[in-house]
Hints:
Strand order of the largest sheet: 3-2-1-4-5-10-9-6-7-8
CATH topology of the largest domain: Rossmann fold
Oligomer: single chain
Amino acid sequence: xxxxxxxxHTLNNQPLVVAISSRALFDLDAxxxxxxxxxxxxxxxxxxxxxxxxxQPGVAFPLVQKLLALNDDAVSHQGVEVIxxxxxxxxxxxxxxxxxxxxxxxxxxxxxxxxxxRFRYLRDFGTQLFLSSHVEDVRRTLAAGFAAAMILPxxxxxxxxxxxxxxxxxxxxxFSDEAERVYQAEGLDAFAHRERQNAGTPLPGGPxxxxxxxxxxxxxxxxxxxNPIRTALVTARSAPAHKRVILTLRKWGIRIDEALFLxxxxxGPFLSAFGADIFFDDQQVHCESAREHVPTxxxxxxxxxx
Length: 306
């Protein structure tokens, strides 16, 4: 395959594998409107008639460009593979691959399921992150133990530069939702008391912990002060509940470049200041704030999404 170049070595024999839907990668709103109004046959005919008309980039397009650019430097690391996962048929999906070729994206593997779920193929590809606009596929992926998020309509990252910047919520994303369950059931005081009592006990990992570990393996191939990846934890937690988070990451051996403990303030402006290429959060209220400023993935996982 094209990305298996001499300058890339795998760790654990696996690159970082990201699967993405065609609607997250490209702007398919007009095409989807045809599907909603006229059905699958009309949609397929619409795509085939326009298969040489290149699609415009979607919300996650800059993220994919930066992920694939990690394969193009002279530093040896595990590498990144992006796989297209589409509910199109192969016939109607030709427009998508023509657009991939037009933009020079190094995507060589694809699955076209003609309306069926793509979930059953994720494990065999070794997928570590699945980005889609289809909530049921995302829910099934999370339930199976993989990181996944529903890409929301919103703002593309307008920040220049080639550095890949990823931001994560804490509870129910990087960590389990056990602390959030206490907060929902017993309130803020009980949550704060429990977190103080358990400050030295690491939180269990959430669905995005393996992804953060894979990102850090790539980061570790570069100097800290000249790194192509920058990560941020952006959480509604505040003191004293911050301590358990910091000690958990230390126990895991994971470095987060920036940590923002916002104490309930809206996350969107802070994510804009960070310049996130994508932000992952389990709570709709935070996603609504974020998507006005940066590309956002809703993680329908944990007690808030029961």
